[in-house]
Amino acid sequence: MPRPVWSGTLSFGLLNVPVSLMSGERNTDIHFRMLDARDKARIRYERVNADTGEEVPWKDIVRAFEYDKGNYVVIEREDIEAAAPESHDAVEIEAFIPRDAIGPRHYEKPYVLVPAKKAEKGYVLLRETLARTQRIGVARVVIRTREHLAAVIPEGDALVLVLLRYPQELVSPGEYHIPEGKPDDYRITAREMKMAEQLIESMSEDWRPDDYRDEFRERLQQVIAERMKQPGSTVSHDDSEEAEPEGAATNVVDFMALLQKSLAAQTRTPAKKVAEKAAGKATKRASQEDDDKRQPSEKRAPAKREPAKRAPTKRAPAKRAPGKKQATAKSRRA
Is the Cβ–Cβ distance between 61 and 76 less than 8 Å? Predict the structure, then answer.
């Protein structure tokens, strides 16, 4: 069973229902990795200082907000904590509205509310009441570090929670050139309108979501499977060597996503290890170069002194040896 996003309470009025917030969607996208066309090596992205070109480890990265073009203000962790919502792990329903009151553009991401053990009664009570009154709950919920607006909607035997977009996040259709006025203003005849209605009626049917599939994804999977059968079309890499941080393949990073990674992930990344290893090698090379510079002078100094010490000892025996032999020869003759 998947792990819950969090476990907390669903509250409305004085009633609190223990629930778990579970993901309501499954990512089925086909993801691609980029390789170097020349040797099929993986492309790795690094966090690089724009001025020096050097890689920056996570521990040296701070968060900043660009309040004007090229101007930034650094935001500390304490600032984020001060702005964070006080209530966590709770779905707090603030109002009940008609089910069709929210336009489709507001709906964003679905979750499923699952009741805890022995909490079924309150869960079913809210579900059935919403279904009978044709209403939905408008709530606030904190997911990770951000507070979201959400709708609690009965769907079959479940209560689903759908994140809503705030009005400030929507673009009004009025900002675009949309044709206004009546059909007569565009010379639409009654016969054309009647034929359009007949066409729509002939194509009308019940909504059966299982009849629709991602056909592009299925065709692409088939292409990948056939490609894998071709000789020389596959390449293997050891994934343990490096692991890219999530979202590293883009220069545009959502501000809240960056905060989540910076606050939650305090461990060193492989890219950092590579940088430290490179720095270690550079230090080792610099130390070796210093040793190499010092060694020639150290070796030449003894080389100059040793011949000076050995020279007298070698020449002295050479001069004394003939004298001894001559003295011995004279004594023998005598």
Answer: no
**Are 158 and 11 in the same domain?**
yes
Give the integer Cα–Cα distance in Å for 86 and 142: 9
Phi/psi at 126 (5° precision):
-70, -40
Q: Which domain holds residue 194?
A: 178-228
Enter the tokens of residue 258. 């960056």
The pLDDT of residue 64 is above 80 = yes
Q: What is the DSSP letter of 314?
A: H
Given 174, 202, 236, the domain boundary residue is: 174
Amino acid in position 104: P
In this predicted structure, the answer to whether residue 299 has a pLDDT above a threshold of 70 is: no
Provide the token pair at 32: 């691609």
pLDDT value at residue 331:
39
- What does the buried/exposed string (b/e) look like for 16-47 if buried means 16 or more CB atoms within 10 Å of the residue's CB? ebbbbbbebeeeeeeeeeeeeeeeeeeeeeeb
Residues 19 and 167 in one domain: yes
- Could you give phi then psi for residue 111, rounded to 5 degrees? -135, 165
Let me know: does 137 contact 93? Beta carbons within 8 Å: yes
- The number of residues making up the chain comes to 334
* Coil/strand/helix, residue 170: coil
- Using an 8 Å Cβ cutoff, are 72 and 50 in contact? no
H-helix segments, the chain: 77-83, 120-133, 190-202, 215-228, 255-264, 270-333
Q: Is 140 helix (H, G, I), strand (E, B) or coil?
A: strand
Q: Is 159 exposed, middle or buried (0-12, 13-18, 19+ CB in 10 A)?
A: buried
> In terms of Cα–Cα distance, which of 196, 130, 191 is closest to 159?
130
Contact status, residue 137 vs residue 12, Cβ threshold 8 Å: yes
229-262 burial: b if 16+ Cβ within 10 Å, else e: eeeeeeeeeeeeeeebeeebeeeeeeeeeebebb
Residues 142 and 20 in one domain: yes
Is residue 8 helix, strand or coil?
strand
327 phi/psi in degrees, rounded to 5: -65, -40
What integer pLDDT is reported at residue 263 of this predicted model? 55
Whether 72 and 199 map to the same domain: the answer is no
Q: What are the tokens at 142?
A: 């904190």
